[in-house]
Structure formats: structure tokens, C-alpha cells
Amino acid sequence: MANRWVLLFVLGVIAVLMAAPLVLTLFTSLKPTTELVNPAWYPPIDLTFEHYIRVWTEGGFSRYFVNTLIISVVDAIVMILIASLAAYAMVFMQFPGKMLLQLLFVLGLMIPVTAVVLPLFQIVRSFGLLNTHLGVIFADLALAVSVFVFMFTSYFAGVPKALHEAARIDGATEFQIYRRVVMPIATPAVVTTALLEFLWSWNDLLLRLLLMTRDEMRTLSVGLLNFQGTMTRDVTGLSSGTVIMAIPVVLLFLVFQRSFVRGMTAGAVK
Amino acid sequence: MAGLELKNLSKAYGQTEVLHDINLSIADGEFIVFVGPSGCGKSTLLRMIAGLEEITGGELMIGGTRANELSPKQRDIAMVFQSYALYPQMTVAENMGFSLSLERKSKAEIAAKVQEAADALQLGPYLDRKPGQLSGGQRQRVAIGRAIVRKPKVFLLDEPLSNLDAALRSETRVEISELHQRMETTMIYVTHDQVEAMTMADRIVVLNGGYIEQVGSPMDLYNNPASEFVAGFIGSPKMNFIKGAPADAVGATTLGVRPEHFEMNPSEGAWQGKVTLVERLGHDTVLYVNVEGAGPVTVNLSGQHSQNVGDTVHLKPDAHFIHKFDHEGRPISV
Ligand SMILES: Nc1ncnc2c1ncn2[C@@H]1O[C@H](COP(=O)(O)OP(=O)(O)OP(=O)(O)O)[C@@H](O)[C@H]1O
Ligand SMILES: [Mg+2]
Hints:
The complex is a heterodimer of chains A (270) and B (334). Chain A has helices at residues 2-30, 50-56, 61-92, 98-110, 113-126, 133-157, 161-169, 174-182, 187-203, 206-211, 220-223, 235-255, 257-269. Chain A has 270 residues and is an all-alpha fold.
């Protein structure tokens, strides 16, 4: 029994340490400016939403939010499509150059993002896609596709070959087998891909900073930088902006908690 | 419905050839069984006919037309897999109707055909269930149902009963035979179980090491095996092969005598030996006898007998049913 209490205590301490920054940010974002002199761990006394309203309207966060949402949702959907189609071909079809392609995907897993960021910027610019949603989406997909192809490939490898053969005998084309036989049983891989790609896309700063220079194209992650000048810092703006950006993530996490944990372990196998 | 023609068919994986020079003519509506030991190439041959495995040599004709390059769909065959390979996310009805829905048949037509097949296989109550909610035997029937709804030209089955328990296996064996009689479709059935082969086949194809060892009706194979291998493979308990003095006496390398072809306590010419084991099956009694000068011999006696381990018995092979083989295992004609 003593062990149990020690365990709970340790877990409690960890939980507090993890939650503290979030809670303090939430406190700050809800405090009237006059209360900012109080220490950070003081809860707000007169609750106010003025900072949220300011950030959402004058701060341009409504626009940033829409930008972020468009990019993340499209990223997630398109990623599911291309990664699963590529993996399907790798697992169930025979074609010349398959080995080479497989090698390229594995290579894609090993190259760090920072190493290719500059050429990626030049490619996006040469296509005239700077400051467009499309440019960021292409870049996101290119950088992460290997990971998800790998994930779908390992998932499809577990699908019995006889299922594919039975469908061929039933007269299905490869695309019909993909759509009606294989994808319906790949839900865990689909959910994991959707969640991880959405979150990466939602939280990414580097690519968006490089590819989106015009204010109206900015995403939330970039928008947060507005509150941090070289000399000044808009603490309440930064806090409420952070909370706005965190809300969808927290909601997603609550809804998909179980798939999320599974996805994390799936990623760990990589 | 269609007959099949296999002309000099062969299969190689890279450098290794696993099927050699297969020639076989299958009549329309025939029930053919491929039988042979594990690894002899039964499944590979079936999959080549199905279009799941590339044909690397020779020609396959289905219904008079060359089928080598045709897709499984174009060949108009259906197949039942050993693992059943049911689509796990679809209901029983959807599984059975999948091929029809791909052909863009109307919902009503699909439903009617599925219902018809389900009635024939007593699957009516399970149409809305998923495969995961069925017993092994029910899944097996869904797999058969999926194959018959389309009324294919040729019906292929790869060890469809090997995942069932003994009782269900003999029950389903009968059902498949009845199904074949009703549908009159050409069926090719793969098994390594010689009892299934004997009971179901019009003709049996015995494969060994990638070659066809013999083709014939079950009784052909039993009475006139073309080799020592076939003689040993067909029949249960297995044929006794006796070398040494008794074989030399009749000018053969090996004598083959089936366990059921012994006479007990003959008046003359008896072999003598001690019983080492007795199996009492009720309708039959199986004695394992160590015969002096001939070695261990299995004897299958009809009915119940009182011999016990350690008893000395006198036996004589029935002269009508003695098989003689030369040093290559080929039969010596009498
Ligand atoms: N993809 C492959 N590559 C190389 N060799 C193969 C391949 N598939 C099968 N073989 C070989 O072909 C031979 C025949 O295999 P097959 O599966 O047809 O045997 P089988 O008679 O069906 O045996 P079982 O009763 O065990 O199912 C075997 O020796 C096997 O090792
Ligand atoms: Mg096999």
C-alpha cells in the first residue's frame, strides 16, 4: 500500500509540473491588466475576456485561425490519401523500380527536416507558391510523407494476402480492392495519420515562418510571434493567443485519447 | 461451365522449377482432386489455374480458349481459400454479394442471388453478421457461398476443410459433394487427405515432387497404382511394403500388400509373426505383426477379433491383391 502512495505522489508531482505552464498561461490570459502585478500563480480575481477579444479581432487571430485550420485539415486528408495509396502499391502490387522507391522512402525517414528546409523554400518559391496555403501544404506533405507511408506499409503488411487474392478473384480492380477491402480495415492507421499530421501541421513554426511572409497568410504559430517585440512583450496577448491555439489540440486529445496513445506507440516502432 | 486443358504446364520461381510438365485434361462438370504430400505443388498448380500465380511454361486452356494471360476475373473462376479470406468488415450478405456488386448488378438481383446461395448452405439466419461473429464451420460455408453466387465456370478449393474438426469435416465433405452434383460445375479440389480424395473425386491427380504421379478414378488408383508412391499414398491404413525373401521369391524388389488383404490362419503358405500392437475400432481390428523374414506388417481385419499383444498369428496375403514393384518402384504386371 505504501508503494501505491509513493507512486501516486510521484505521478501527482509530474502532473503538476506538466500542467503548471498551461494553467499559469490560462490565469494570465484571464487577468485584467491591473492584476498582472500579482505573482503568476495568483488566480485571476476579476475574470475578463478582453484579451481574447483583442487578440481575435485586432490581433488578426481569427484570420490566422482559419489559415491554420485550412492547412491542417487539408494536410491530414491529403496525407491519408497519398500515404495509403503509396503503401498499397508497395505492399500489394508488383512493378519495376519498387525496390528503389522503397529505398527512397526509407531515406526520407532519415533526413532531418532542417537539412532540407532551404531547398524546399527555393522549390516552393520557384513554383510561385510562397504565401499560399498550397505552398505550405506541399511542403508539409513532402516532409512527412515517408513516415506515414512507412506506417501504412507496416499496417497493410499485416493484412492477409489471401484477402487481396480473394478480391481479385471476385473481380475487383486494384483501386476497388484499395477502397472497399483494404481501407475499411485500416481505420487505426487512418485515425493515427489524421491526428499526427493535423497536430504537426497545427504546431509547426519553421516552415510557416519561411513560406508565409504576408500577414494575412500567417498561421497561429507565427501569429504568436507578433506579441514578442525585441524590447516589449504583450504578456496577456501572448497568453490568450496561446490558449486559442491550444484549445483545438486539447479537444482533439480528449476525443481521440485512446487512438492517440496507440498512435504514439505506432510511431515509436519507427 | 467449362472443361480445362493443361498442356506441358510448368512453374519456376527464379531458377527453381517446382512444377514440371503437367499434362491434364479435365472434362466439363468433373470433380477433380489434387492430392499429394506437403510441398508437392498442389496449391501452386491450383493458383496457376486461378490466375493468382504466373504460368512460366506451357499452356492453360479454359473452355477451349487460352487463359495464360487472362486475369482471374476474365477466367471466370471462383476459389475457396484454406483461410476462408472473408472480408472482415463486410456482413455475410455483403461478402457473398461482393462480386455481384462489382459487376454493378441491381440491389434486388444481388439480394435474390445471395438469398438463394444462403438457403442452399443454411446461412439464412447469419446474413447480417460479420465473419468475426461466426463459428469456423459457418465461415467456411460463407466462403463457399461467396464462390457459388456467381455461378462460375470453374470452382477451385484449396484445402477448404483443413481448419474444421473431424466431425464437421466429414459432414461438409458430403455437402460439397452434393453441391457439386446440384451445380454440375467443374470443381478442382486440393487436399493432402487421401480420404477426402477417395470419397469426393471423379478422378484423382496424385502429385509428387512437382510431377503428376498418376491420374485416375479412386478405384483405379486403389487397384492399379502406377507406382510404389501412389500405392503407399492411397489407402488407409497404408499398404505394407515387404522386401527381402518373400519379394525375391516372386521376382520383385518390393511386394505390396494392403492391410485389408490378408487371410488369417490359412491352411498353407502361412507367414508367422508376433503381434506387437492391437487397435480395436469396433468395425475393424488393426494388428501390427512382426513377421519373421518380412518385418513389421499391418493387418486390418474386418470385425472384432480376440488377438492380443504377444500372440503368435499366421497370415497369408491374398494372392489376387498382391502388388509387385521393381527396383524403380514401378509395378510389374502380372
Ligand atoms: N513464392 C515462392 N517462391 C519460391 N518457392 C515457392 C513459392 N511458393 C511455393 N514455393 C515452393 O513450391 C513448392 C510447392 O508449394 P505448394 O504451396 O504448391 O505446395 P502444396 O502441395 O500446396 O503443399 P501444402 O500441402 O503444404 O499446402 C514448395 O516446394 C514451395 O517451397
Ligand atoms: Mg497448399
